[in-house]
Design goal:
mainly alpha, 7 helices
């Protein structure tokens, strides 16, 4: 097991532990759902390719190939070229601009997540309030006015202004 395989496995397990893919933020919008699914598919493909190319390719058996090919000199020249060729490994350097952009996007997402958490908390409080102050046919106007003072003020203002059917007459 190589170091890169071990590090990928550690990162993958940390990502799986720290990202709650079942969070409502990932299921709120069809566009977000599509993007998350695309990202998961990309990660799965990248991991499969990393596993596939984690070890060096097997050595080419030129002797067996010489038996199957009529032109032995062609195989000999390919073998010489193969043994002489030592291409440098390809490495990828993450540019500072891309890294800064990604970090900025992460910070923006964290601030949006905090804002969304506040909205969720406020909505839960509002739902609890509405459940606690649910109106029924048996409630008196006084009870409704205590639960909804803004509504009571509006009704009182309409009565004072003699706007009896304000909400029902088309102007």
């Amino acid at each position: 097991m190589s170091v890169s395989f071990t590090s990928r496995r550690a990162v993958r397990s940390l990502a799986a532990r720290n990202v709650d893919w079942n969070s409502p933020i990932f299921k709120r919008d069809p566009e977000v759902i599509g993007a998350v699914n695309d990202f998961k598919a990309w990660v799965a493909k990248a991991e499969a390719k990393a596993e596939q190319f984690a070890s060096p390719p097997p050595a080419i058996d030129f002797e067996a190939t010489k038996k199957d090919v009529r032109d032995k000199s062609l195989v000999d020249s390919l073998e010489k070229f193969y043994k002489a060729s030592k291409p440098p490994p390809m490495t990828y350097e993450w540019s500072a601009e891309d890294k800064a952009s990604s970090l900025q996007q992460i910070e923006e997402a964290k601030s949006r997540e905090a804002f969304t958490a506040e909205l969720i908390e406020d909505a839960e409080k509002e739902i609890a309030y509405l459940k606690a102050n649910r109106t029924t046919r048996e409630m008196s106007f006084t009870e409704i006015a205590e639960a909804y003072p803004d509504l009571a003020d509006q009704v009182e203002a309409e009565l004072d202004n003699r706007e009896w059917f304000k909400d029902y007459i088309i102007k």
